[in-house]
Amino acid sequence: MIPTYIVDDVESDRYIARRRLSKTGLFGPVQEAPGGSEFLDLYFAGTDAEAPPPLILMDINMPELSGFETLEALRLRLAGDPGTGARNQVVAVFSSSDNERDIERSSALGIVQHFFTKPLDDAAIAEILETYRASGAL
Amino acid sequence: MRLDTTAGPDPGALPGSFPGGDLGQYCLAVALCPMPALLCDPEGLILAANPLLERMLGYDESGLSGLSVTALIPEPQREGHAALMQAFHQLPRRRSMNGGAEVSVRRRDGALLPVEVLLNPVQVDQRALTFTAFLDTSARRRAERRLRDVLNAAATAMILVDETGRIRLVNAAACTLLGGPEEALLEHSVDHFLPPDLHAAHRVHRANYHIASSPRAMAMNRPLKVVGLDGVERPVNIALRPVETESGQRVVATIYDLSETFSYQQELKSRADGLAALNEELTQFAYSASHDLRAPLATISGLLDLCLEDLEAGDTAECRRNIHAALETSQRNIHKVEAVLTLARAGMQEVPVERMELDEAVAGAWSRLTRDRADAPGFVIDCDGPVALMTERRTLLTAIENLLSNALRFHDPERDAPWVAVRIRTRARKVSICVSDNGLGIPDTEQPRVFEMFRRSARSEGHGLGLSLVMKHVRRLGGLVSLSSSPSGTDVILSFDDMEVLS
């Protein structure tokens, strides 16, 4: 099972993501955070070393810490922490807009593998699973 | 303005000495002298005058002989003239009257004529006589006046500088540029009008220029600064041109005032900056709109997809729940679109300028906002002067309402005595309105961004448009918004530098 974090300030969007993930039966535990700070607290609270690399579904537009700011903070903390730094993760940004600027900024972060526009659908989840299979993690 | 005549060859000079002889010969010399002249005794009695002088002063032939020189002296100077004459005879030597400067001679009809006077002591039959020649300078004066008129008609400042750096001539534009009247400017060296740190260097540059002078721009056309007698510093370009005069080499400096050019450039730059800011605002708007207006539609679409799946699976309870969520999202979005339209329209419509009793308007806004709330924070309005304004009442009120609504929304429920205060200060045309609260405050990291469109607090259900609207409205009224916030509360200050306050 893939440990998953859904980070979005809109409750309905978290619900949609959760439903899409649960259909496959491959994701769990699924944890939700309504903002970047809450996510970072959750993420560094402790992990299951035996589990495959976690999936992070990250919204861009959120009050206070944006998705970009949250991922930048995540990158810095991972770089400064050899324990968690060794751990891989799959980051998928999902946004309501396919603005070029956002796509470029996502890829510039260096830790984002996927960019999806909302609403999250089964095809997006299939694409994420493909990454896991290709890397042999699943 | 006076042209310099103190140095150089004296056009009125007479030969150094006369051959010896009696009075008759001297009188003949006076008669033959090619310029107006007279001979007088130590008491000032005119012994002979030539026809040129008689004509110049409007006398008949021989009309001056036998008169006292006092007749030729303007009345105000007559009293002192005897003493001057006495002084001359104590040390008689050839010299120009009044140090070569212009004096006035009185014509028979009382009119005054500008002249230079050359005095030459001669011994005739043991009497110390004075041979006096006159140079009519009125023609030169007219020429000077014409030159001055021409120079003064020029819009460009011009000064004439001698080899010692002294200013010898200035035109009207130079007086304006250098911040002083002509007499005051002529007292100074040209160095005086440069910034103090350049005085010494300029003395050297100036001396070098006199050695090898050619028409050229000063400082390789780089903008220079002059400091006027009024202390005002102005950016200028200066062009130099050497001129030969009877009194030696002079330099004409033409000074171009660049203040207007500079301020025009600055205005252009500030307009360009304004346009760039507007462009950035539009880009930001398009970006935010693409995110924030699409977001609810994406949510609704995602929810409806799930509804279909739930229906097919026969899970009507889940389906109903999702339809409600989609409905709620769409309804919320209707308000959001309305708020965006309000923001977009702000600044486009004519809003009437009306009288506004600020304290009453604020109190009214607060009571509308808190009408249905039992737990409203304490509210106080503090004014220190007149509070009646002439302004776009609706625009200002909307801004204040938004601030009050924020103060109300973000009050700290943990606090025993929550309050909101509005402080109004008016000084002449300056108005400041401070909306304060002891609420939750805005985190430091969030403060620089709170005025961005769609920027909202995680603690709020708002659309993130209120403070954007406040900013837009206050700017429309020519004011500024400043914010300071800490965990113990928030102050938002609207300040207007030029608003009509009615007393």
From TrEMBL, chain A:
<feature type="domain" description="Response regulatory">
    <location>
        <begin position="3"/>
        <end position="133"/>
    </location>
</feature>
<feature type="modified residue" description="4-aspartylphosphate">
    <location>
        <position position="59"/>
    </location>
</feature>
<dbReference type="InterPro" id="IPR001789">
    <property type="entry name" value="Sig_transdc_resp-reg_receiver"/>
</dbReference>
<protein>
    <submittedName>
        <fullName>Response regulator</fullName>
    </submittedName>
</protein>
<dbReference type="InterPro" id="IPR011006">
    <property type="entry name" value="CheY-like_superfamily"/>
</dbReference>
<dbReference type="GO" id="GO:0000160">
    <property type="term" value="P:phosphorelay signal transduction system"/>
</dbReference>
<keyword id="KW-0597">Phosphoprotein</keyword>
<dbReference type="InterPro" id="IPR052893">
    <property type="entry name" value="TCS_response_regulator"/>
</dbReference>
<dbReference type="Pfam" id="PF00072">
    <property type="entry name" value="Response_reg"/>
</dbReference>
TrEMBL record, chain B:
<dbReference type="GO" id="GO:0000155">
    <property type="term" value="F:phosphorelay sensor kinase activity"/>
</dbReference>
<keyword id="KW-1133">Transmembrane helix</keyword>
<dbReference type="InterPro" id="IPR003661">
    <property type="entry name" value="HisK_dim/P_dom"/>
</dbReference>
<dbReference type="Pfam" id="PF00989">
    <property type="entry name" value="PAS"/>
</dbReference>
<dbReference type="GO" id="GO:0000156">
    <property type="term" value="F:phosphorelay response regulator activity"/>
</dbReference>
<keyword id="KW-0547">Nucleotide-binding</keyword>
<dbReference type="InterPro" id="IPR036097">
    <property type="entry name" value="HisK_dim/P_sf"/>
</dbReference>
<keyword id="KW-0808">Transferase</keyword>
<dbReference type="GO" id="GO:0006355">
    <property type="term" value="P:regulation of DNA-templated transcription"/>
</dbReference>
<feature type="domain" description="Histidine kinase">
    <location>
        <begin position="288"/>
        <end position="500"/>
    </location>
</feature>
<keyword id="KW-0597">Phosphoprotein</keyword>
<keyword id="KW-0812">Transmembrane</keyword>
<dbReference type="GO" id="GO:0030295">
    <property type="term" value="F:protein kinase activator activity"/>
</dbReference>
<dbReference type="InterPro" id="IPR004358">
    <property type="entry name" value="Sig_transdc_His_kin-like_C"/>
</dbReference>
<dbReference type="InterPro" id="IPR003594">
    <property type="entry name" value="HATPase_dom"/>
</dbReference>
<dbReference type="InterPro" id="IPR035965">
    <property type="entry name" value="PAS-like_dom_sf"/>
</dbReference>
<dbReference type="InterPro" id="IPR013767">
    <property type="entry name" value="PAS_fold"/>
</dbReference>
<protein>
    <recommendedName>
        <fullName>histidine kinase</fullName>
        <ecNumber>2.7.13.3</ecNumber>
    </recommendedName>
</protein>
<keyword id="KW-0902">Two-component regulatory system</keyword>
<keyword id="KW-0067">ATP-binding</keyword>
<keyword id="KW-0418">Kinase</keyword>
<dbReference type="InterPro" id="IPR005467">
    <property type="entry name" value="His_kinase_dom"/>
</dbReference>
